[in-house]
Amino acid sequence: MFKDFKVDLNELEAYIKNSLAGISAEVTVASAEGVKCLSIITSNTLLFDFRITNTTAEVYLNLSIKGYEGIAGLLDRIGLGLAFDLIKELQEGFGSLPKSLIISKTIPSDSIYLLLEPTDSFPPVKGVLRGGEISVIMSSCTAVNDNIECTNKSYLPIINAVLRTLRRLKNLKASSQ
Asked: What angle do CA 89, 91, 94 make, to 5 degrees?
C-alpha cells in the first residue's frame, strides 16, 4: 500500500502532467518540515492531494467535480487503483457518490482509514483496517469483519463495497509483508 512510502513526487508530477494533458489543471509539489505534498487543482478547486511523512500517507480525491476520472492511472501508480473500483461499485450499487474519498495509512498504529465524505444523497462512512480487523461505521449501519448490522437496508451496497475494498487492502498488505 502506498508503495511502502517510496514515492518520488517529482516523478509523479511529470507523470501527472503527461497523463492529465486534456484537463486544465495546476500541479504543485511541495516539501516542508518532513511533509511531502503533491496537489492537483482544477477550476480553483482541489481535485487530488497526496501527503506523505515518515509515519503517515494520505490521499484525498474530490469526487464532486469533473476530472477525477483522469487520475485513475495516478492512483494505480501509487498502489491505490482499487479506489476507482470502489467508486464504480458505489455508483452502480447505490446510485450516487460521496463528495470525496480519503485513504490514510498510519505506521504507528498500523492502520488504514477509508473515509467517504457525505453529500445530501450520500451518508458519511468511516472504514478502518487495523491489524487483521476490519470495521465500517455509518449512520444506521456498522460492520466488524463479516458481521453487518444495518437498520437502513438501502445502505447495504455502500457498506458491502467498503468492506470489499478494505478486504482487498488487507490482502495487499498481507502479500507485501
From this structure: 90
What are the sequence ranges of the domains in the chain?
A: 2-175
- Distance from the first to the final alpha carbon of the chain: 11
As a whole number of angstroms, the distance between CA 39 and CA 74 comes to 12
What angle, rounded to 10 degrees, do the helices at 82-94 and 156-175 form?
170
pLDDT per residue over 123-134, tens digit each? Answer: 999 999 998 899
Find, among 87, 127, 131, 91, the residue nearest to 111 by Cα: 131
How does 62-90 read in b/e, with b if 16+ C-beta sit within 10 Å? Answer: bbeeebbebbbebbebbbbebbbebbebb
Entry pTM: 0.85
